[in-house]
Structures are given as structure tokens and as C-alpha cells.
């Protein structure tokens, strides 16, 4: 790359959207017909679909022409497909990020279905901003919105989401501020389900982190396998990991690509996300690895209270959860 010419590229572009664009549209046909999507495309960065009617979760995501995320057999579809048991699977699109919560995460519990109803909530007050940095071509695209969860009889939980896409480096930053607007304490679990699939994910893809201990939750008993492995008919595997954080309190987990010369790192602030899980499914036709920072278990809200580890927000209290997804090249 000619660095001198690249630094002057802004002088030969007539529109900033040539470097980084964010366009909102309504899907015209198929199962997701009528839903709002913001498509973000960044020079040097990710191309991602933000699903505005699914809690501003991040759908299909590509990097350098390679699909990075996993897409479920259901694909994109409208909210409202869940029920109070296992119905989450009926409407799950997959995508790069699915948020689980805000009243339950993990197994169905106390009338709340698997992984809760967050991803069934539409975003409100959505805005798109662009930040010009001092460095050449440093246009960050910032998408903000609000997501509410509760019932008709009073205020509940409000989540203010900020998604920041960088053009300086391939990175997405997620910052969520969750506030309890009700007059009662609220159990407020949150789990970030980050899903990676083929062709980025291959049998020789490996998971790397400063893991001190891994505890198996589902699957055939064995030590945590760092390599993805070939498609097979074995049961899904779920592990919880104790990952050492850096001096700033951030932990990270890296997944290498199989045939592409780069890796993806998921980093999270352990101050409010002290736990992390991995989910691996290698069955034919459903080949996926997930990295899941969380403030809760995957056993449901009752199990968390019984263990004395339930995340509670008092009336008027708020918390900030942060994570980032980035690519490193030349591995």
C-alpha cells in the first residue's frame, strides 16, 4: 500500500460514504420482510447488518469478502417467534451478535423462555453518527438506539446501545448501558452470544485465551478441545472458562481462521462481565462456535439466585457492559 497516497485519499473522494457508509432500509421480501436493517460498510473494517427490530443485534458480518458470522437455518426473520420454553430457536437468525436477557439468560426459568426476550424487542430513537479522527481515513460510524423490556403495567429495563465501527482498524465496539427504571429491584442477566461460522471457521480453527480453568456444562465429558474439529454427530459442547484479565480488567479470547491468514479476538470488560462461556456445535449442516461473555450462568435466573450470583439492579441503578470484536492479520 502506498501510505503517502493513502493519507491523501480524502482529497479525491467527493462523499464520505465512499469510505464508510451506514444505510437503513426495510427488507422487501422473504421471512424478514418488513423489518428494519442498517447496513454498515467500512473501509478496512467490517460489513455488518444491524437488526434494528431485533434489539440492534449484529447480523451477518463479512471481513475482506469472507463471511465471518454464522447464519442459522432460520435466517433473518421478524421478532415475536419466541415462547416461554425453547421457542428462542424458532426465531434465532444467528449472526455475529445475539444478546440474551434482559430478564433471563440460559435455560428456561420462572416463566421466562430460553435466553429471554431481548432479541424480540425493537430499537427506538435510532441514530447514526460519524466521527472524523485526526488520523487519515479515521471515520468511525456510530449507531445508537434504545431497547426496552417490561410489561404494560409499569416501567422496566432500558438498554441504551452504542455500536462503533472503525475504519482505522477492523473493530466493532459494543457499549450497553442498562438501567432499571422500575420501582423494584430487578434481576437483570445479560449474555453476549458471538457466533462464528464457515468459511472463516474450519476444522483446524483454534480457540486461544489465558484460561486458568474450564468447567464443562454440556457434552460428552472431556477436557476443553481448543481445535474446532471435523463435522460430526456428537452432542453440543458448552464450557465455562476462568480467563485471566489484563491490568485494565479486560479479558480476551481469540479464534483463528482455518484458511484465512487472520484471527478474531473478542475482548470484554470483566468489571460487569465476569463470566465467559463457549458453545460449539459440529453437527452436519450446523457448524458453529460461539464465545459468550456474561454476567450470569447459562442455567437460568432461578439457578443464579440459588447460587447467590444473580445480577441485580436496584431501582434507578444502571450498569455499563463493554466488549469489542476485532481482526488481527498475518497469523
Please give the largest β-sheet. Answer: 8 strands, antiparallel
Task: Give the termini separation.
Answer: 19 Å
> Care to count the β-strands?
21
Helix and strand content put the structural class at: mainly beta
Alpha-carbon Rg, integer: 20 Å
Poorly predicted sequence stretches spanning 5 or more consecutive residues: 1-5
What is the number of helical segments per DSSP (H or I, 4+ residues)? 3
Portion in beta strands: 35-45%
Global outline: globular
What does this structure look like?
This protein is mainly beta and 331 residues long. The protein contains 3 helices and 21 strands. It has helices at 3-7, 88-91, 301-306; strands spanning 20-26, 36-42, 46-51, 57-63, 66-67, 97-101, 124-132, 139-149, 157-165, 171-180, 186-187, 190-197, 207-209, 211-218, 237-243, 250-256, 262-269, 275-283, 286-294, 312-313, 318-329. An 8-stranded antiparallel β-sheet has the order 7-8-9-10-21-17-16-13, with no helix packed on it. Strands 6-12-19-18-15-14 form a 6-stranded antiparallel β-sheet, with no helix packed on it. A 5-stranded antiparallel β-sheet has the order 1-2-3-4-5, with no helix packed on it. Strand 4 and strand 5 form a beta hairpin. The longest helix is centred in the C-terminal third of the chain and has 6 residues, at 301-306. The radius of gyration is 20 Å and the shape is globular.
